[in-house]
Design a protein that fits this description.
Elements (H helix, E strand, L loop, with lengths): L3 H37 L2 H22 L2 H9 L6 H26 L3 H7 L3 H23 L3 H25 L3 H23 L13 H11 L2 H23 L1 H10 L3 H21 L6 H34 L11 H23 L3 H26 L1 H27 L5 H17 L5 H29 L2 H4 L3 H6 L1
Helix pairs in contact: 1-7, 1-12, 2-6, 2-8, 2-10, 2-11, 3-4, 3-6, 3-9, 4-6, 6-8, 7-8, 10-11, 10-15, 10-16, 12-13, 12-14, 13-14, 13-17, 13-18, 14-16, 14-17, 15-16, 17-18
């Protein structure tokens, strides 16, 4: 037991590092693609594109029955045969795709569906097809604990997405069609790459189709369908309602406003993918509570520093990074950056449900999130416009985080520092408000507030460094040892 404790932390953070390497290219991709989207696409095109992608995201959990979540949960469990897990995953996904192919042409004859889908019915179908298989295959690679291959696949997909996007949007000027084709082709190449490099065909076997395991996996994954849909309602109801009440151009502004906050969630994703694996693997460990306590403390410090850093530079970055037609997005980005912090915290706390297989409770908290988000949007978008969408996102995720924090403490019995949480959040709120001040005073105030956040959270980050940096190097930096 004495050696197990440091190993689990090193495993978590070595996986995080690998996921970070794989995700680094996607972060660069975000930086590169935003100017392409905002310079070569109109507000209406970007708004329409956002609606199509949101529709695809809504279809994914229904078509796949969220089986990828069961694949990672049961695939990491040594009690289950990986061939059976992967075979069941493929059967579920391909069955869902066939059903979608029958239903979609009929559904798009309905006027309100046609309004949102437009002429992109075929592309929407292919988008869902490739996204479903890519999600299944990349998730199973994680279940095989081939995290390096997972990271390489992320880099490859990023490069291909960039190449196809430049070709189809900047050169060919195909607009929404070009955007969707770029992602479809990149996902298809990812599927082929994982299929051959991980030799995934070896895990497909009709003889390994296990009815008992199928029932267990579906019992786990089915409650996650409404959970994910409600999460998506929280995420995408903003887009649909802004488009409905204010038009596609306003939705394009909102889509641009989300580009900078997405950096926060992208950084969390690197950690979250590794954390998911560790939370499942360590669910039965003796010091599970202590593990959650330490990791959540680190997660808090990381998110406060990342969000504070982005709020510090959001003004100049927007002026350089976003096309002139979308500069209005700066009015909403600071609120969305702060909201994303609670998105990440709520997701972190959601791993307690995954590890303990309490997916029904996950559904209930997601329902609360959806009701709050939709309610605020319906009432306030017609009155205060896009600001209502940003505020509804913040309110819904804040409430869900608080509920999940209480639940996680009950399920895992971990602890956290309430004063640290309160002080950091007050500082972030002040940074959000400072972004609405004009002139040099705004930058001076932002710098001071970020410096305070840095000081408060520096100790936690240095303790992490101490755990992984060789002691002989730390001895050469006595200042760090004093701070720790």
């Amino acid at each position: 037991m004495a050696e197990k404790k440091p190993n689990k932390y090193k495993n978590l953070f070595s996986n995080t590092l690998i996921f970070a390497i794989g995700s680094f290219s996607s972060k660069i991709l975000v930086l590169i693609l935003v100017p392409i989207y905002t310079y070569y696409m109109t507000e209406a095109e970007l708004g329409m594109n956002d609606v199509i992608v949101q529709l695809a995201n809504w279809l994914l959990p229904v078509v796949t029955l969220t089986i990828a979540e069961a694949v990672i949960r049961f695939g990491l469990d040594k009690a289950h045969d990986k061939k059976s897990v992967f075979t069941i995953g493929n059967v579920i996904v391909l069955t869902g795709i066939i059903i979608l192919g029958v239903i979609l042409p009929v559904a798009t004859r309905i006027p309100i569906v046609k309004e949102f889908v437009g002429d992109y019915e075929l592309l929407l179908f292919v988008y869902v097809l490739t996204s479903s298989l890519k999600l299944l295959y990349s998730t199973f690679v994680r279940a095989l604990e081939k995290v390096k291959l997972f990271a390489i696949n992320g880099i490859l997909t990023t490069f291909l997405t960039l190449a196809f996007t430049i070709a189809f949007i900047a050169v060919a000027r195909w607009g929404v069609t070009g955007y969707l084709l770029a992602i479809i082709l990149a996902d298809f190449c990812s599927i082929v790459f994982l299929l051959f490099t991980a030799k995934l065909w070896r895990y497909l076997s009709a003889r390994k189709f296990n009815g008992t395991l199928l029932k267990a996996m579906l019992t786990y994954s089915l409650p996650l369908i409404p959970t994910q849909l409600l999460w998506l309602i929280t995420n995408s109801s903003d887009s649909f309602m802004v488009k409905y009440f204010l038009g596609a151009e306003s939705n394009g502004i909102l889509a641009a406003a989300y580009k900078i906050p997405n950096i926060v969630s992208t950084i969390y994703l690197m950690f979250g993918q590794a954390w998911n694996m560790s939370a499942i693997s360590e669910n039965e460990s003796d010091d599970r509570s202590r593990f959650y306590t330490k990791v959540f403390d680190l997660n808090q410090s990381l998110m406060y520093l990342v969000a504070g850093g982005i709020l510090l530079i959001v003004k100049p970055v927007t002026m350089v990074w976003i096309g002139p037609a979308f500069r209005e997005s700066l009015s909403y980005a600071p609120i969305l950056v702060y909201a994303t912090v609670f998105t990440c915290f709520a997701t972190f706390m959601g791993t307690a449900y995954i590890a303990t297989k309490n997916t029904v409770r996950s559904l209930m908290t997601s329902l609360v999130s959806g009701v709050i988000n939709v309610g605020i949007n319906l009432v306030f978008i017609p009155k205060i416009g896009i600001y209502a969408a940003a505020i509804s996102t913040l309110a819904s995720y804040l409430v869900v985080f608080i509920i999940r924090l209480i639940d996680a403490k009950r399920l895992i019995n971990f602890s956290f520092s309430l004063p640290k949480m309160v002080i950091n959040n007050i500082l972030l709120i002040l940074m959000v408000l400072s972004n609405y001040i004009r002139g040099i005073k705004s930058y001076a105030l932002l710098f001071v507030l970020f410096a305070v956040i840095l000081v408060i959270n520096l100790r936690c980050m240095l303790q992490l460094a101490k755990a992984f940096v060789p002691e002989r190097f730390l001895k050469k930096i006595p200042v760090i040892n004093k701070l720790i």
